[in-house]
Structures are given as structure tokens and as C-alpha cells.
Specification:
Length: about 200
């Protein structure tokens, strides 16, 4: 292998200071992401706070409506992927192929598996907000547009997309939200009621 081919190595084959710096920075970032995983309420609260700060900034500056529209479309796509099953039932030729949700009362419970998991949804949405916030610092992204048209178009797009998603959910009988397996009363619970 020729010297300097691998990422982060200098010409002499030793790791460069810049490569080490970015590698360490990536490790710290990943460590913070790993530590934040169990705290979904805090993560989403911080993302909502960041969204509010972004919206206030756009409102005060009275610009960057195209960036905000692009952010809204990106978040809509993330939300649709979050609501969609990992294996789309409409694409399966054989209904026995792939994971299926129960259609009868006595079938086994199978949890809903998302195309986009909650953590990746949060991470992508937060990165999108940060990138949009950075874009508001550059005048090149402040394209003059009549913003009410963008708002109406986004509302129309949201309604059409959600209508299609809800029809898909009804047609293939799945709910994107599961709260765990059903619990049934065992024999010991039934014995207590008879003893009373």
C-alpha cells in the first residue's frame, strides 16, 4: 500500500494532527449521541427549542423562506418514513413473505418495525434544523419569494401526503404506534378474585 493512501495519514505514513483531531471530534460526538439515546423526551424537547429559535430568527429577519420551506419538506419526508413500515406490504408479491402484522384477534403479536427508527428521525431532524440555521447566516440563501404561496403549497402537500399515508395504513391494516405486547390476566390473578 502506498504511503499516505489511508484517511488521516500524512505523506510519511504517520497519522496527521488534523486527521487525529477530526477522528477524536467524531468520537466525542458519537459518545454524546450514545449517551443521549435513552432520553427521548429531553432530545425532542431540545429539538423543539432549537426549532423555536430558528422560527424566531426567520420571523425577526423576515427572510430565508425558501430555506424554511425546504426544511419543512425535509421534515415531512422524515415523518412519512417514520410512519411507514420497514417492509412495504404493497411491494410484497407473497403475503407470507416478510414480517406481517396480526389481522385476527388470535394471531401472535408482531411489533411494528419502522423504515426510519425514532432515534434516526430525531438525529436527522435536528441536523436539518442546524443546517437551516447556518444557512440563515448567508445572504445567498435569502431568495425573495412571496411566502404565503409557499405556506399554502406546504399545507396542501402535507394534507395530500398524509391522506395517502392514512389510506395505506387502512388498506394494509397497520398502526405505526405500538405500546408493547398485550398482557393477559394469569391464573394467579383469577384465583385471587375467586378467593375474595
Amino acid at each position: 500500500m502506498p504511503e499516505g493512501d489511508s484517511a488521516g495519514e500524512s505523506i510519511h505514513g504517520k497519522p496527521s494532527a488534523i486527521g487525529n483531531f477530526f477522528k477524536r471530534l467524531g468520537q466525542i460526538y458519537q459518545s454524546w449521541l450514545d449517551k443521549s439515546t435513552p432520553f427521548s423526551a429531553f432530545r425532542w424537547a431540545s429539538t423543539l427549542l432549537l426549532t423555536a429559535i430558528y422560527m424566531i430568527r426567520v420571523y425577526i429577519l423576515q427572510g430565508w423562506y425558501i430555506v424554511t420551506y425546504a426544511l419543512g419538506i425535509y421534515h415531512l419526508n422524515l415523518f412519512i418514513a417514520f410512519l411507514s413500515p420497514k417492509v412495504d406490504p404493497s411491494l410484497l408479491d407473497d403475503p407470507d413473505e416478510g414480517p406481517a402484522l396480526p389481522t385476527k384477534q388470535n394471531e401472535e403479536f408482531r411489533p411494528f418495525i419502522r423504515r426510519l427508527p425514532e432515534f434516526k428521525f430525531w438525529h436527522s431532524a435536528t441536523k436539518g434544523i442546524v443546517i437551516a440555521m447556518i444557512c440563515t447566516f448567508f445572504d445567498a440563501f435569502d431568495v425573495p419569494v412571496f411566502w404565503p404561496i409557499l405556506v399554502m403549497y406546504f399545507i396542501m402537500l402535507f394534507c395530500i401526503t398524509m391522506k395517502r399515508q392514512i389510506k395505506h395504513m387502512i388498506k394494509y391494516r397497520y398502526l405505526p404506534f405500538t405500546h408493547g405486547k398485550r398482557t393477559y390476566r394469569g391464573k394467579e390473578d383469577a384465583a385471587k378474585t375467586f378467593a375474595s
